Amino acid sequence: MKFTKLVPNVFYENIQDGLNLFVDCLEFSIGYHDLKSESPCCVVQKDALSIFLFQNKEYANKDRPEMRLHTDNIEEVFAKVSQTHSQFLHPNLNAVTLRPWGAKEFALRDKTDVCVIIQQWS
Fold it and tell me: For residues 1 and 26, what is the distance between their CA atoms, to the nearest angstrom?
C-alpha cells in the first residue's frame, strides 16, 4: 500500500479567513475553487502541499485544527512572515525557537484559531 499525499480539510465560517492565512500570508495559490457557490470551497497549493478549505459554519465551530509545515529554511520563512503578516504570529511561539525534540519552530494563528506550526528539523 502506498500513499503519496495527505490533504487536510479546514473549515471556516468565512472562507476568506483561510485565504488570508494560506494564500496571502503563506503564499499558497488557489488550484481549484468554487468560491461563489452556496457552499464555497477551494484547494490551495504550494510545492507538493495541498489543503482543502471549506466555508461551513457548523464544522468550523466544531474543530480548529493545528498542523505543521516543514521547511528547509525556517529563518527565511519567519523573516518574510514577520515582515508582511506579523498579525498571524502565535503569541505562544512568535519567534524561531529550538524545541526540546530538536526541531526549530514558530507558529501562526489566524483569527479563527487555526494554528500552523512552521518547523525545521536540525
Answer: 32
